[in-house]
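Worked problem 6 (solution included).
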Amino acid sequence: MKKFWLLFALLIGPLLFYLLILLIDINATFLPVLNKEVIDVSSIEPKQNISFKNHINIVGFLGEDLLHKKTNALNLNQKIYKPYYEFKTFQFVIIVPQETREKVKQLKKELGFTTDIKNWKFVFTTKEKITMLYNSLETSVKIDSNSYSSEVFIIDKMGFQRGRNDDKDTIGGKLYSYNAESVSFIHKKMVDDIKIVLEEYRRALKKNKKKEVFKNPYKENK
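Solution. The predicted structure is:
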């Protein structure tokens, strides 16, 4: 009997330990859901055929003076968009006032100078609707009178807002949004959080034996 339990411990013990480590790793690579009450962009402008659902979204508000705030877009394009845009369901959704169409054309030219910007989506709507959508997001930063905010948000495929609930630099620990004006903030926090969300969905795709075109850093197609 003693030999049986010894063999059992030697064979099953390492397996249980591996499963425990695996569970810890899975929990460590999950970005918390902080808000389930986000208004879907498709509900404010249905004719533009853009939705948060079934996409991993970076959502921003560049306002009327977007060419003066283009640094935000250029920062995000370099640090977040370029490494991950080949993930088919990954998109940037930028909500702007209706009268900015010509400015958006200029901005897209600059963004597309070295990058395929097929997954940059611009939604044109009224200031009232922009404010309504923005107010459905959790953040301590208010949108200004020009419909601009420095903050960008991670919205998952369910339309839920993701972020941190243990951020050491935030009062209360909850980090709802990311300051696109700061390259260091994007680099230190947002890059890591996007990796976590994409890895989470990569795991789900692998589990369900589905394929999605995506290059580095996860190399799903290999």
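Discussion: Residues 16-28, 212-222 have pLDDT under 50 and may be disordered.
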